[in-house]
Design brief:
binds coenzyme A; alpha+beta; about 25% helix; 4 helices
Length: about 150
């Protein structure tokens, strides 16, 4: 693996990002119900989408949401989506993406980065805890709300 970097989406990388394949069983965890519902109401201008590149290859995708006025505190500075290509998982790419998003949040003056995930065997819970998120609550759909202090 070379040096990782984040880039804004372009016509070619967005196709690669949409085509990232996950490991069996992971698809169900990519979009927690709370995000799927809120997506219909979220202003696209608050979205911060980036691809993770290893050389010229798209190996991951992360989308943050920065919306300081949002009525729901867990949507103000958060990880909306993060996924890493099946064959590139377990090599630190997810952690790199979260830390880059955390840097962006910090530079915007936020003191916390939050994320919502669905508990489950093939889900991302252990990843988020390992990266430093602490569980601070639960949504009405039984999902965990995690927070990383910046
Ligand atoms: C969750 C996901 C993004 C993690 O990406 P990744 O690149 O494989 O994770 P990393 O290699 O950066 O792992 C960072 C740390 O978390 C740990 N970790 C990652 N996944 C883990 C798991 N399933 N169980 C236990 N530990 C895990 C790693 O061992 C590593 O620990 P270390 O810092 O001690 O070395 C990836 O598995 C994925 O794309 N999942 C499917 C999509 C998804 O569920 N997204 C979340 C939606 S909210």
């Amino acid at each position: 693996m070379g040096e990782l970097r984040l880039e804004e989406l372009s016509a070619s990388t967005i196709v690669a990002a949409n085509g990232l394949t996950l490991r069996p069983g992971q698809e169900a965890f990519v979009t927690p119900t709370s995000y799927a519902i809120a997506d219909a109401y979220i202003n696209p201008l608050t979205s911060w989408p980036r691809v993770v590149l290893d050389g010229d290859e798209v190996v991951g995708f992360i989308r943050g949401n920065f919306d300081p006025e949002n009525a729901q505190p867990e949507f103000r500075s958060c990880v909306w989506r993060v996924n890493v290509a099946a064959d590139a998982q377990g090599m630190g790419i997810g952690k790199f993406a979260i830390w880059a998003l955390a840097d962006e949040a910090r530079s915007r003056g936020f003191t916390q980065l939050t994320v919502i995930w669905e508990p489950g065997e093939d889900g991302p819970e252990d990843f988020f805890l390992r990266v430093g998120f602490k569980v601070i609550g639960e949504t009405q759909y039984g999902e965990s709300i995690g927070a990383l202090e910046l």
